[in-house]
């Protein structure tokens, strides 16, 4: 309860969390808790297994999803975004989390549910663990849409998503080899510059029996950047 209160109120330290709880003693009865000291929180962090926080996240996420508004896009399917972020750490304190011989780092892998913008998936790993490895742990429902960047460009995983009935969107690799099977018409004076049906043409793609891909060309009118 103390950790949850500290997170929701934006506390920056254990001492800050202790002070926050001590100013709300009249609410302790309703929360089912008592005063918590900084030293008690420190001992709890040292002794409690990390799986406790994983389970706590899952419980809170499930409760929140029942009270969230739907995303504001026109399509009705569930929309998720996947991303990974490095969390820098002291190499002296965490030598086993060596990232590049100069610093230690952990990586936070998050799946964001756009219904209410609430995280529905989270994993903390060592910094060298790839995003693709954790992406396979994320279980999106059928007919949902999953969006991710090029760090998740694993063709076999893309095929797994398609075979499960999950839509996905990402940027294509700059060195991707493919051939165009169909060119679709696009509306003039819009940011969409091309609409193609392509098939990857590398030897590995033939071995993996990859699905056909829809490739959209887009020119951002604000940044003048072209994406595919």
Describe this structure as you would to a colleague.
With 228 residues, the protein is of the alpha+beta class. Helix 1 (2-8) packs across helix 2 (14-22) and helix 2 (14-22) crosses helix 4. The protein is built from 8 helices and 9 strands. Among the domains are: 70-170, Ribonuclease H-like superfamily/Ribonuclease H (Nucleotidyltransferase, domain 5, 2-Layer Sandwich); 172-228. 12% of the residues are buried.
CATH architecture assignment of the domain at 70-170: 2-Layer Sandwich
Coarse shape: elongated
Give the spatial strand order of the biggest sheet: 3-2-1-4-5
Radius of gyration, rounded? Answer: 23 Å
- Sketch the topology as an H/E string, one letter per element: HHHHHEEEHEHEEEHEE
Average the pLDDT over all residues and give the rounded result.
Answer: 87
CATH C-level of the domain at 70-170? Alpha Beta
CATH superfamily placement of the domain at 70-170: Ribonuclease H-like superfamily/Ribonuclease H
Structural class: alpha+beta
How far is the N terminus from the C terminus? 46 Å
Describe what is shown at a glance:
Helix content is 29%, strand content 27%. The chain is α+β, with helices and mostly antiparallel strands and 228 residues long.
Write the layout of secondary structure elements.
Elements (H helix, E strand, L loop, with lengths): L1 H7 L5 H9 L5 H4 L6 H10 L3 H15 L13 E11 L14 E10 L4 E9 L4 H5 L9 E3 L7 H9 L3 E3 L8 E7 L7 E9 L2 H6 L4 E7 L6 E2 L1
Parallel strand pairs: 1-4, 4-5
Antiparallel strand pairs: 1-2, 2-3, 6-7, 7-8, 8-9
């Amino acid at each position: 309860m103390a950790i949850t209160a500290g997170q929701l109120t934006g506390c920056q330290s254990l001492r800050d969390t202790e002070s926050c709880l001590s100013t709300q003693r009249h609410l302790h009865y309703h929360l089912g808790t008592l005063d918590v000291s900084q030293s008690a929180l420190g001992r709890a962090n040292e002794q409690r297994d990390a799986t406790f926080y994983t389970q706590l996240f899952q419980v809170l996420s499930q409760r929140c999803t029942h009270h969230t508004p739907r995303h504001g896009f026109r399509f009705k399917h569930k929309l998720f975004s996947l991303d990974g972020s490095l969390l820098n750490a002291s190499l002296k304190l965490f030598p086993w989390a060596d990232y590049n011989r100069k610093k230690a780092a952990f990586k936070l892998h998050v799946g964001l549910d756009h219904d209410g913008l609430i995280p529905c998936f989270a994993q903390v790993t060592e910094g060298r663990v790839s995003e693709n490895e954790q992406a396979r742990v994320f279980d999106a429902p059928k007919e949902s849409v999953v969006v991710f960047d090029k760090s998740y460009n694993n063709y076999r995983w893309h095929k797994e998503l398609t075979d499960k009935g999950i839509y996905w969107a990402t940027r294509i690799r700059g060195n991707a080899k493919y051939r165009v099977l169909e060119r679709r018409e696009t509306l003039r004076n819009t940011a969409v510059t091309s609409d193609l049906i392509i098939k990857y043409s590398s030897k590995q793609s033939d071995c993996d029996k990859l699905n056909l891909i829809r490739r959209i060309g887009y020119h951002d009118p604000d940044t003048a950047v072209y994406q595919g």
